[in-house]
Amino acid sequence: MKKIGIIGKAGKQEPLDIIRELVPWLKAKGHEALVDAENASQLNMQGTPRAQMPSLVDLIVVLGGDGTMISVARLVADKGIPILGVNIGGLGFLTAVQKDEIYDVMEKVLKDECSIEERIMLNSCVLRHSECITEYIAVNDVVVNKGALARIIDLEIYVNGIYLSTFKADGLIISTPTGSTAYALSAGGPILYPTLNSIIIAPICPHTLTNRPIVLPDDMQVEIYLKSGKEDVYLTIDGQVGFSLRQNDVVVVKKSGHKARIFVPCERDYFQIIRTKLKWGER
Predict the structure, then answer these.
(1) Over the Cα atoms of the chain, what is R_g?
(2) Residue 176 near residue 139, CB atoms below 8 Å
(3) Which of 16, 76, 162, 207 is the most buried (most CB within 10 A)?
(4) Which domains are delineated in the chain?
(5) Residues 17, 36, 58, 66: which is the catalytic one?
(6) Which of 233, 252, 224, 204 shows the shortest CA–CA distance to 163?
(7) What pLDDT sits at residue 186?
């Protein structure tokens, strides 16, 4: 891995401090470092636009929280570039490397001593009058939910063309295993091991209390028909990208042909991350 991309959360000092030291450290070891243009401009360095970086590097180091990590995972999805997350945000399920560990972990990554997890992603398409008018890729989840002042909405769900149910709810989450510790968890969904080939359908605040989350194989296609006509309803991707829906729109969700490739910190397991982040076993 000769070319290392570095993308930091914009508007924070901590990524700048790390970049200032990490770039010369990488160069001293014979690696070329490409810094995202927004952060590079703050350090008077030559920068690389984020959109161009996936075509130029062998690995991307992400300095931020899970939100930054997710946006970069979508950015590099079609290139298969592995990413290493350094947590300078909040919870940090994906950015599992702490600031004080970065150089020890980077040493092992550059020596190919750390494994890479491949995690499924979702592809979503909005059909309007049978035409796909917009398409997105998601790392965590695809969500259909109502606006702030809207009432309960009706969502008719089909799986592989077979009718599942009509949910009267605030919305619906289609989640990957990676997203099972995000919004879906708040909606009562299960935690899935991140490399499982499964998806979760989780209603948000359903009017019928027996409507519970369900886990499906990831080779199944989910179709969400919006039946409500007078409410503000949105499609949201990973909590970062939004699209306004209309009555009779159909959101088609299926497994993406691309996978997120995430470096796993050496000598650390998923259950340790669960215990640490969710404080399991604490009193």
Answers:
(1) 20
(2) yes
(3) 76
(4) 3-115+264-278 (3.40.50.10330), 121-257 (2.60.200.30)
(5) 66
(6) 224
(7) 94
Helices (H), 124-171: none
Q: Would you place residue 1 in the very low, low, confident or very high pLDDT band (cuts 50, 70, 90)?
A: low
Provide φ and ψ at 249, rounded to 5°.
Answer: -65, 150
Evaluate whether 80 touches 12 at the Cβ level (below 8 Å): no
Is 255 within 8 Å of 154 (Cβ atoms)?
Answer: no
Contacts of 183 by beta carbon, 8 Å cutoff, 6+ apart = 140, 141, 143, 173, 175, 239
**This model's pTM is above 0.85:** yes
238 in active site: no
- % of the chain with per-residue pLDDT over 70: 99
Both structure tokens of 107: 């040493």
**Model pLDDT for residues 155-170, shown as the tens digit of each residue:** 999 999 999 999 999 9
The one-letter amino acid code at 106 reads M
